[in-house]
Design a protein that fits this description.
It is a single chain. By secondary structure, the chain is α/β, with parallel strands linked by helices. The chain has 2 domains: 1-79 and 195-228, P-loop containing nucleotide triphosphate hydrolases (Rossmann fold); 88-150, no CATH class. Helices cover 32% and strands 26% of the residues. It has helices spanning 41-48, 74-79, 96-105, 111-124, 140-152, 170-185, 197-203, and strands at 2-10, 16-25, 30-34, 56-61, 64-65, 81-85, 158-162, 189-193, 206-211, 214-219. β4 (56-61) and β5 form a beta hairpin. α4 (111-124) crosses α5 (140-152). Bound molecules: adenosine-5'-diphosphate (2 copies). Its main location: membrane. It is a peripheral membrane protein. This is Cell division ATP-binding protein FtsE.
Length: 228
């Protein structure tokens, strides 16, 4: 489902962020990506949703080759992919409902389908009662739940999360993790870059550790493995 073959990424300023990564992630897996700051985690996940292009190597997601994909095809790739960021990236002048509905309007879903599906995903993230709220009226954890609802509204095969709990306290982070776990149990592959040791050590999922742009560890029921 997600496959990288000898992938390298050197940024235009000469920084070698990823140095020969090969990895295979099966459909339905839950994978943590861990490692020290600057190790290349973010570059690794950004290449999965084609925010960054590899300098060399092959990346395929559900059979399409991302390294060679033309820019105009990228939106189609992202339709089958949910992306969650540390800073939520909600549209501040739209309500919760509209933020989630927007992702379905882009794919030209019908009004009736949008209404039904948006309320359904807001129910999954337990925010049905806040559909009319504006993002600034929500706590950080609630804003992240809206961004998760937006990420899953089109039923993507893959959910990529880059430090989704980075701005949240530990209790709120656990709420987010239970939602991501539930989404994974419904069949979505989840790849999550994180610094949250407590969460990684408690969940015991696959852990891919990156150091110096290479995979230093890949464990089926792994641990965080760093002191900070
Ligand atoms: P991590 O997510 O593990 O902290 P990153 O992938 O963000 O690591 O960064 C890996 C290396 O690439 C770091 O040295 C970082 O400074 C560098 N880097 C990241 N993004 C860019 C960029 N857009 N341009 C140049 N260098 C970058
Ligand atoms: P947290 O526990 O994450 O700090 P807050 O104290 O920010 O949460 O928010 C607690 C509750 O109050 C949340 O359910 C949030 O939706 C609501 N809330 C916070 N700020 C506002 C606001 N300006 N208008 C309406 N509701 C708000």
């Amino acid at each position: 489902m997600i496959e990288m073959k000898d992938v390298w990424k050197t940024y235009p300023n000469g920084v070698m962020a990823v140095n020969g990564i090969s990895v295979y992630i099966k459909k339905g897996e839950f994978v943590y990506v861990v490692g020290p700051s600057g190790a290349g985690k973010s570059t690794f996940v950004k290449m999965m949703y084609r925010e960054e292009r590899p300098t060399r190597g092959e990346i395929s997601i559900n059979g399409s080759n991302l390294a060679e994909m033309k820019e105009k095809k990228v939106p189609y790739l992202r339709r089958n992919m949910g992306i969650v960021f540390q800073d939520f990236k909600l549209l501040p002048s739209m309500t919760v409902f509209e933020n989630v509905a927007f992702a379905m309007e882009v794919i030209e879903a019908s009004k009736a389908n949008i209404r039904k599906r948006v309320m359904n995903v807001l129910d999954i993230v337990r925010l049905k009662n806040k559909a009319r709220f504006m993002p600034h009226e929500l706590s950080g954890g609630e804003q992240q739940r809206v961004s998760i609802a937006r990420a899953i509204v089109n039923s993507p095969a893959v959910l990529i999360a880059d430090e989704p709990t980075g701005n949240l306290d530990i209790e709120t982070s656990w709420e987010i993790m239970h939602i991501l776990e539930e989404i994974n149990e419904r069949g979505t592959t989840v790849v999550m870059a994180t610094h949250n040791r407590e969460i990684v050590n408690n969940m015991r999922k696959r852990v891919i550790a990156i150091e110096g742009g290479r995979i230093s560890r890949d464990e089926i029921r792994g641990r965080y493995g760093y002191e900070s």
